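User: I'm preparing a small set of examples for a lab meeting where we compare how different chains pack in three dimensions. I only have the primary sequence for this one, and I'd like the structure in token form so I can line it up with the others. Please keep the answer compact; I'll paste it straight into my notes.
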Amino acid sequence: MEICVNHTTLFYEKAGEGKPLILLHGNGETHEIFSALIPPLAERFTVYAVDTRGHGQSAPVSEYHYEDMAADIAAFCAALGLQSPAVYGFSDGGIAALLLSLRFPHLPARIAVSGANLDPRGLKRDFLRAVKKEFAKTQAPLLRLILEEPHIPVRELKKIAVPVLVTAGERDIVRNAHTRKIAAALPHAALRCFRGETHDSYVVHSALLAPELLSFFA
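Assistant: Understood. Below is the structure token output for the 218-residue chain.
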């Protein structure tokens, strides 16, 4: 399905019945990464799996900003009349979910984020070096996004009043100390580290997160 919001067109898939739950994928991905996660979640929720702006079957864009992604989801909820949705975001989607809670504090009921960072310095150095090297060759806008954004002050997280589940892989590209800092700054946060997992191994085409999300959002 497609919907025009915030001066762009977003593609999304809808599954299940119950309270709304929005899923947001990471950089360069599509809603299809949640193929294994959607079925168990759809047993309890109406799941909206969105291709964020410029990704997948959504309309192309010339540049990317996390603030725009958050504003898109707020407009998406308004257009569909979604009241107090739960929001889960992976990687870039997690950043957008945090910004959604900051910019539209009365919108989400709860959020869960996996592998999110507050600024580029929260990423491991070897990963950043690899991104910089690739960006020097391609000038790809999505790589520029990783190198230049976000810039969320830690103190801002104290404004997020809703419960937040923060997860990361033990071998994540986000520094472990950075993930702990995010969880510590949130007033109502739970932290879950997946032992032996990488940034995306427990999320992409995996149902490993389903019990955590079902318990948290319930």
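A couple of notes for your slides: The chain has one domain: 2-217. The CA atoms of residues 123 and 174 lie 4 Å apart.

User: Perfect, thanks.
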